[in-house]
TrEMBL record:
GO terms for biological process: cell wall macromolecule catabolic process; defense response to bacterium; killing of cells of another organism; peptidoglycan catabolic process. This is Lysozyme. Keywords: Antimicrobial, Bacteriolytic enzyme, Glycosidase, Host cytoplasm, Hydrolase. It is an enzyme of class 3 (hydrolase). Belongs to the glycosyl hydrolase 24 family.
Length: 155
């Protein structure tokens, strides 16, 4: 069964992404549109409407939700939502990194995963990795949601 991001997760994502209906370059210089959509289809001058932006968001979240649904860790809805928002931003490749992989496999995964999430607060700007205050705030908000108790999802 594929789990979907909860309403708190969507609200968090929308709070940090905002919705831009005209293509723009993000802090790392990547062409972006809608709720943080990137890809070859995003080119300078591209304009979309709100309905298209919302559809792109759901499409972009689908592979994240599918991958998170395969994890063995019994994530509650807030952990699932926070992790989905994190992976939406940094990409699914983060799951393959040594640090995150080890965190997910750890007996103490509920503490180890957010520690790893907080490390993803940098972007490459002019060839250098630098801490981006907006990314640091985003990671802190994702971790706060991760740590917010809720009823575990039904299996």
């Amino acid at each position: 069964m594929i789990r979907r991001i909860n309403s708190a997760g969507l609200a968090l994502l929308r709070a940090f992404e905002s919705c831009e209906l005209e293509a723009y370059r993000d802090v790392a210089g990547i062409w972006t549109i809608g709720w943080g959509h990137t890809g070859r289809d995003v080119v300078p001058g591209l304009e979309i409407n709100q309905q298209r932006a919302d559809a792109l968001l759901l499409g972009d979240l689908d592979p994240v939700e599918r991958r998170l649904s395969t994890l063995r860790a019994p994530l509650n809805d807030n952990q699932f939502g926070a992790f989905a928002v994190f992976l939406f931003n940094v990409g699914l490749g983060a799951l393959n990194g040594e640090g995150m992989s080890a965190a997910l496999s750890s007996p103490d995964w509920e503490v180890a995963v957010p520690v790893q999430m907080l490390r993803w607060n940098k972007a490459t700007v002019k060839g250098q990795k630098v801490v981006v205050p907006g990314l640091a705030r985003r990671r802190e908000a994702e971790v706060a949601m991760w740590q917010t108790p809720c009823v575990p999802a039904a299996a």
